[in-house]
Write a structure and sequence with these properties.
The structure is a single chain. The chain is mainly alpha-helical. The chain has two domains: about 90 residues, Tetratricopeptide repeat domain (Serine Threonine Protein Phosphatase 5, Tetratricopeptide repeat, Alpha Horseshoe); about 130 residues, Tetratricopeptide repeat domain (Serine Threonine Protein Phosphatase 5, Tetratricopeptide repeat, Alpha Horseshoe). The chain is about 75% helix and about 0% strand. The chain has 13 helices and no strands. α3 packs antiparallel against α4, α5 runs antiparallel to α6 and α10 packs antiparallel against α11. The protein is elongated and about 95 Å long. The chain starts with a helix and ends with a helix. About 30% of the residues are buried.
Length: about 260
């Protein structure tokens, strides 16, 4: 009986000590978070205590938030290798569809991978973020920089695909004029690429948007000649045969319906 009582007492003391330590860590974190005019040292202390808390109590409800904080802190302070490790831990544990912070964490991982010159991974996580959340113009420019790194090396595998994607980013961030040149690069450097007909269509549509219909027609005619089996060639033929170049979508629809005898 005395032995059972002793065991229960030890267990109670152990549980109390564990609970006290947990609460002490919570208090430390709270105090550091409430510190006014936080210095770099204060933020480092906060990240250290949050990491200790996660290691001690990985199943606590605050573990997710603390892991987010320290992964971002390490990326911002240049400890990109650790930021990558923490991010990967996060994705294993909290990669659920209802996690509203996934996009932010993907972007953080992308920056860390870029700092480590792992460009493929930086692109991968930025594109994952774009599927999860709205990204900023700065994020799009960052993605464009990653594509530019890859296509600068002419031996990069799937370089034509990266060039096409880069052209799309340029279109969103720097305007149609520069984008047209990037789309042109794809089909001039890789005429056998599966992306060449698409890039020709994009280039032609940019000329259309700028009112340069003769140049647009020239590209469409070249597309029909060089890629006759492509769906893009069929569309190009329709644009020319039905005199749709330079017309708005509504005007094009009206013309096509009239030709079909529809009202």
């Amino acid at each position: 009986m005395k032995i059972q009582t002793l065991i229960l007492l030890v267990a109670a003391v152990s549980f109390t000590a564990c609970t006290d330590k947990k609460e002490k860590l919570r208090e430390q974190i709270s105090e550091l978070q409430m510190t006014e005019n936080q210095t770099g040292e204060t933020k480092a202390q906060l990240a250290e205590v949050q990491e200790e808390f996660i290691n001690q109590y990985p199943d606590d409800s605050m573990a997710k938030t603390y892991l987010e904080n320290i992964a971002i802190f390490n990326q911002l302070t240049g400890n990109s290798a650790k930021a990558i490790d923490l991010s990967n831990q996060y994705f294993v544990r909290f990669n659920s569809a209802d996690n509203s912070e996934l996009g932010t964490m993907y972007l953080n991982a992308a920056r860390a991978y870029s700092d480590e010159n792992q460009t493929d991974s930086a692109i991968h996580y930025t594109e994952k973020a774009m599927k999860e959340t709205s990204v900023s113009l700065a994020d799009l420019r960052f993605l464009g920089e990653q594509f530019a790194k890859l296509i600068a090396d002419t031996t990069t595998q799937h370089r034509d695909r990266y060039m096409m994607k880069y052209a799309g980013i340029v279109e969103q961030t720097r305007g149609l004029g520069e984008a047209g040149l990037e789309y042109q690069r794809v089909y001039l450097e890789y005429p056998s690429s599966e992306y060449a007909p698409y890039c020709m269509t994009k280039h032609a549509s940019i000329y259309e948007a700028n009112g340069e219909l003769d140049k647009a027609r020239e590209i469409y005619e070249k597309l029909i000649e060089e890629y006759p089996e492509s769906n893009f060639a069929s569309n190009a033929k329709s644009m020319i045969d039905n005199d749709l170049l330079g017309k708005s979508a509504a005007e094009q629809l009206k013309i096509l319906r009239a030709k079909k005898g529809e009202s």
